[in-house]
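Here is an idea for our session: we take a single protein and study its fold together. Which protein we use is up to you, so please pick one and set it down. Once you have written the record down, we can walk along the chain together:
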Amino acid sequence: MNDVVEILKSIGAIVTNDHFVYTSGRHGSVYIRKDMLYPHTVQTSEVCRLFAEKFKDRDIDVVVGPQIGGIILSQWTAHHLSDLKQNEIVGIFTEKDENNNQLFKRDYYKLVKGKNVLIFSGIGNPQGFENAIAGLGIDIAKSFRFADHHAYTQADIDNIIQEARQLNLDNIITTHKDAIKTRELQIKDAGIVALNIKLSITKNEAEFNRRLLKLYSF
């Protein structure tokens, strides 16, 4: 088969003539049960081959999918892209944190080192965020700086995604804070991920804690 919809229909993965409330909050009468696809390895491979065919002329080095089901799709798509391009295309995945933000863990961020990305933020110190991204060896092709506490609109996200596509970028990175503020908006499978930043005291931690306690003691 050369049509994704027909493949999904053949295994009963498309449910129609019912009422569904999607994650976005929108309502519809059609739902695709991706979990019905995954047990069928031949059909899963064929669907991902069609994905790969569509993007075979793009400059892609890494295919990223969200955990859990996206792992299967990213792996198969990367496999077929590797075959089409005669070059290894890596398949990795992101994982959710407690706020449902998609994060690179397991050192997977290292696999996007040297890749061009688009980033956006609405924080008090955007330069610090940009420095953190650059410090990972990731090249920033475009940075959208919004005012601190910016209330994102759908138009903002649409503009960001459009710019990424015009620049032929497949990676969009933002902060935890901004990911939370945009999670109710439509991201159109743009692959927006949040940078996971942790504070670590590497020297004189005891002295740091002593001063902190003294500062906030009453």
Summary: The mean pLDDT is 83.
